[in-house]
Specification:
The chain has helices at 12-15, 34-39, 58-73, 90-99, 140-152, 208-211, 214-226, 231-241, 269-275; strands at residues 2-6, 29-33, 46-50, 78-81, 107-109, 121-125, 160-164, 175-183, 186-195, 204-205, 245-253, 256-263. It is of the alpha/beta class and 276 residues long. It has a five-stranded mixed sheet. A four-stranded parallel sheet has the order 2-1-3-4.
Length: 276
């Protein structure tokens, strides 16, 4: 049995996915909210995936850690993926990768000393998955104005991150976003998206089709899926950040990956295929 633990806010990913209609998973995959998991007494052997860690409140993190320790001591073969406290959240992940020289861009909290970042920057949440809250901000005045706007709307200052922009566009202004999945001990490259805007969300976005032929994009995707250029660095990233399950999103610059995030509660792969 595979147990997938998720917050109430994030349980739409797997629970509403067509992947659960696969006959091979019948009776073998169960989605539980953390509240349900905390009350679960009988666990069958298999795997327990602690997902959606960014959204866990501090009290839930404590209970999840207690559950992790209880399952680890349990008799029977249970594989535990993602430790509730040793798996990096977004801020810790990006800061650690920058300090290790893997990422060019850095990340800052609002309460850190002003002026340590390199413009342009943008603001995003430490916990949520909406992407950037702002356009690229090029000076202190623009940054302070956006902080004021977002906190006036009710966003908590402690949830806002200042993220340095890293330009990964090629000479034609096209951005490529790669995704890779980590499942247990395996890391594999999965998708490549193309766009003409720095925040790439869809397989083909903006006016990219006018700048790059579909044939070229398919060839690039094929080379990406069939190759392993980025895997050594991605495996190093996973080891440094404690992930055993999740989706790695990264840009591509000068033959190396620039890591944007690792999502511990990713949309199942078949949902991405449906979008294409």
């Amino acid at each position: 049995m595979i147990y997938y633990l998720v917050t109430k806010q994030g349980d739409h990913t797997f629970r509403n996915s067509l992947i659960l209609d696969d006959a091979r998973l019948a009776g073998r995959f169960r989605v539980l909210t953390y509240d349900e998991a905390f009350g679960q007494q009988n666990w069958q052997g298999g795997a327990v995936i602690f997902s959606d860690l960014d959204r866990l409140a501090s009290g839930d993190v404590l209970q999840a850690t207690v559950l992790y320790r209880r399952l680890k001591r349990a008799h029977g073969p249970i594989r535990l993926l993602n430790h509730p406290t040793r798996t990096c959240r977004r801020f810790a992940l990006l800061r650690r990768l920058h300090d290790a020289g893997i990422n060019e861009h850095n990340v800052f909290r609002l309460d850190e000393s002003r002026g340590g970042w390199r413009y342009p920057v943008f603001l995003r949440s430490d916990m949520q998955h909406e992407g950037s809250y702002t356009s690229l901000l090029r000076d202190d005045a623009a940054l302070e104005a956006e902080i004021w706007r977002l906190t006036s709307l009710g966003l908590l200052p402690q949830d806002l991150l200042i993220v340095e922009f890293c330009d990964t566009a090629d000479r034609d202004g096209i951005y490529r976003k790669g995704t890779a999945y980590v499942v247990g001990d395996s890391v594999f490259q999965r998708f490549m998206f193309f766009g003409d805007h720095w925040e790439v969300k869809l397989p083909r976005s903006g006016t990219v089709a006018a700048k790059l032929s579909e044939r070229r994009m398919l060839d690039d995707e094929g080379a990406f899926l069939g190759g392993d250029l980025y895997l050594p660095v991605l495996r190093d990233v996973v080891e440094r950040t404690g992930f055993a399950f999740g989706r790695i999103d990264f840009g591509m610059k000068d033959g190396r990956p620039e890591i944007w995030e690792i999502n511990s509660n990713p949309d199942p792969a078949v949902m991405h295929y449906a979008k294409t």
